[in-house]
């Protein structure tokens, strides 16, 4: 019998999957102008939000209580769902920063972080959760 928590995490995973695939697609190409950087940052924000929420739903399905992105990251790391909690905490910090700050230099730095650090971490989570599907 399928529980509502099982259904919820799978529905959230489908949304996460769509967002991750967009981020992966566009971050894999050349990012040369302000509009492209803004798009990558936006896809990152959406994907990160869905990533921590799918972790929350998955962990709750497993019997854990998760009230924040930090708790979700810490518990996911302890369970082996993510490899590097430091990268995820940095991604959380940067995601929070993007909501309040925008200038060209910050956008360039963040885009580089997304492509080189955060996207590979999200890719690993995607593959891990795909196996759970």
Automatic annotation (TrEMBL):
What InterPro entries does the annotation carry? HepT (IPR010235)
In terms of Gene3D superfamilies, this protein maps to: Nucleotidyltransferases domain 2
Source domain of life: Bacteria
**NCBIfam families according to UniProt:** HI0074
Give the protein name, as stated in the record. Nucleotidyltransferase substrate binding protein
Tell me what organism the protein belongs to.
Answer: Lentibacillus halophilus
